[in-house]
Amino acid sequence: MRTTLQQLAEHGQSPWIHHLTRDWIHDPDHGLPRLIRHGVTGAVANPATLVAALSGTTAYDEQIRTLLPVVEDSNEFHRQLVRLDARDACDLLLETAAGDKPLDGWIGVEVDPRFIDDAAAIVEQARWLSAAVGRPNLLVGITAAGSGLAAIEEATALGLSVLATGVYSPGRYRDTALAYQRGLARLVAAGGDPATVTSVASVPVAALDEKADLRLRAVGRHPELIGTLGMATAKLIRSEYLAFFTGAEWERLAAFGATPQRCLWSGLTVSDGRQPSLRYAEGLIGRGSAALLSRHTAEAFLSRGRVQPTLDYQLTAARRILAAHVKAGVSPKLIVNALEAENVRRGAEAFGDVRALIDYKRAQLGVMAFR
C-alpha cells in the first residue's frame, strides 16, 4: 500500500523534511531512513534543530573531541559539523538523486546569513561547502535578499546547485529566477553543463499569514481574510514560475538540459489552532513543486493527509485576496519587507546560537579530556 507521501510524489510534488541532526540521520527506525522509506525525497538542515541537538544530546560530542586538538575557531567547528551531517544525508539519498526526477534526492544546507551584504563571501562559503561535502545532490542555501541575489547568479555560473531561501513574494521569486537564469547562461557560455545544476526557491507560507493576521486583528476588521495571505501568495508565485520558464531565452537554456527553478513550499506548520493542521500541506499540492514538512507535519500527513491537486486553482481569488488586504490597510509589500529583514536577523541569530553552544561544548569536553 502506498503511503500518502508516496502518493504526493505520484502527483508530481516532492515531499521534503525540514530536519537534519546527526543521530536522526543515522536512526533507521525513527529517523531520516524511515521517512525515506515512506516517501520523503529530500531534506533541508534547520539551525534550530542543531541547537537542540547540541544542547540536549551527545550526538556531536565524539566529533567535537576529535576536532579539539586541530581546530581553534568555533566557526570552523560549525562548518565541520554541518559538513559531516550534509555528506551523510546526501549519501542516504544518492540513489534517489540518480533517478529521472530533478526535484528528488537533494539535501539543502544554508551558508552563514551574516554575510548577506557580501556576495563574494557568500560564494566563497558556498564553494567551500560544496567541495567539502563532495556530493552531487547538495543544495547550498543562499538568502534571496541583499547581495544574496548576485551570489545566487555567481554560484550557479560556477556550477553549484542553489536553494534560494526567504522568497516571500512573486516579485522576489522573479528576481531569484532571473539570477538563476543569468547564472545558467554564463555556465553554458563557459562550456559547462546546466543539466548538472538545479535551483529551488523556498517560499515560507505560514510566516506570511502570521504577520498579516496580527495586523488584521489589530485593525479589527475583515475576519474573512484571516489565514488567507500565505496560500494566495504561494499561488501567485506559482503563476510567476509558470510564466517565467517559457519563451525563447529559457527554451535555449532548456535545450542544453537546464531545469526550471522550482518552488519549495516551506513553513507549512499551522500555528493557529483554529485552522486545520494540514491546510497548507493539502492546499499547495501541484506538479513540479516540493513541500518542506516539519517532522510533526510529515507524520500527520502520513496518518491522515488527503492527496489531490490544489495548487493551480483559484488564481483569480488569490489576486483578490491580496487586493483585499491592501484595501483593509494591511500592505502585503510592507509585510514582505518586514519578513525579509526578520529572516536575515533570525538566521544570523540561529547561527550565533549554534556557535555559542559549540564554544560551551568545546570547553566542557576539553576539561573532561584533561581530567
Q: What's the architecture in CATH terms?
A: Alpha-Beta Barrel
Q: What is the helix/strand order?
A: HEHHEHHHHEHEHEHEHHHEHEHHH
Round the Cα radius of gyration to an integer and report it: 20 Å
Please give the oligomerization state of what you see: single chain
Instruction: State the share of residues found in helices, binned by percent.
Output: 55-70%
| Major sheet | 8 strands, parallel, barrel
Spatial strand arrangement across the major sheet = 1-2-3-4-5-6-7-8
Primary descriptors:
single chain, 371 residues, alpha/beta, TIM Barrel, eight-stranded parallel β-barrel, 56% helix, globular
Could you describe the 3D structure shown?
The chain is α/β, with parallel strands linked by helices and 371 residues long. The protein has a single domain, classed as Aldolase class I (TIM Barrel, Alpha-Beta Barrel), CATH 3.20.20. Helix content is 56%, strand content 11%. It contains 17 helices and eight strands. The chain has an eight-stranded parallel β-barrel with strand order 1-2-3-4-5-6-7-8, surrounded by eight helices. The protein is globular and about 60 Å long.
